[in-house]
Amino acid sequence: MRQSTAICYLTPEVRARNNLEIRSDCYAESLMFDGTRCIGIRVRAPAGEEILSAREIIISAGALQSPALLMRSGVGPAAHLREHGIEVVADRAGVGQNLHEHPTCILAAHLRLNGMQPAALRAAGNMALRHSSKLGDCPPHDFYIAIANKVSWHPLGNRIGGAIAAVVKPYSRGAVSLKSADPTINPRVAFHVMEDERDFTRMKMALRLFYEIFCSDAVRDVTTEAFPAAFSARVRQLNMETPVNWWKSFAGSLLMDMPGPVRRTALKTLIAPGPSLEDIFATEETLGSWIRENCRGFFHPVGTCRFGRKDDPSAVLDPAGRVYGVVGLRIADASVMPSITRANTNLTAIMIGEKVADLIKDGT
Predict the structure, then answer these.
(1) Catalytic residue numbers?
(2) Which terminal CB of the chain, N or C, has fewer other CB atoms within 10 Å?
(3) Could you name the CATH architecture of 104-174+189-294?
(4) In which residue ranges of the chain is pLDDT below 70?
């Protein structure tokens, strides 16, 4: 069973340790330097601004916020920092670069009662297909399709199944950059998914494969309507667990059980506005256009403070997780990965933390 690191690592015994203090509702604004030595961090706490000092600072803010924290503190591409009036502590061109993700697209279907899983099972992926595209120089198992019999907690989500196609060895690269030196303003995040033609071609391959499966007699026997889907703002809003959303989804579920013309009207106008699967797969152009408009990430961003050799100008960290150009500062999160894993990044991120912890204990 998958459990969070908070549950598995921060046990009651660990929380009771004298050398551990957990601060909640605190935002790391910037690092403090004495020359090139990192001596602390400025945080915005409920009681106001506070400076926390330490012999060594370890950042674990993730692939989107770790590079932003470095850049706000003067560690990053010098020209970009000067654009925002930030004094340069260490010129590291790779900070914020090499951003990549597992790009995903989703096909979904409304399930008949004979296609539903037992009510006691949680909404989660319960089957997956790993596939090799055999496209050019792409490695084996380079795309992955997760199957979910339920897509959300509410009545409508319990009746919708989904196939999430992900390119798990992407070549497209994006970047994290600053909009402002102001720590209250989130950084600019540009994933640039599908910019590499190899990613685009493989996503089309994955979707065609599952369109063929969705059109099969076996799937039609357990579904009423199939349609394209996306992690849109509208979907995220409905996924919030509130009484209002439960009633909205209940009404939608009732409409989807109505006769065909009513069901298709509800689907087109309320549930999944936009083109049908038939519209999308009509031509190469319509499929490509839909992918570019609806492809999203899988919540697996990596690579923006990557490991590398000291003579590599794009590297940010040495093999022990120490930031090049400064002293007393390490990073331990998914931002350190030079290249994304062909799997969920959760376990790899945990092992990065374990490895860096071992190196610190060993005095490395």
Answers:
(1) 300
(2) N
(3) 2-Layer Sandwich (3.30)
(4) 1, 123-126
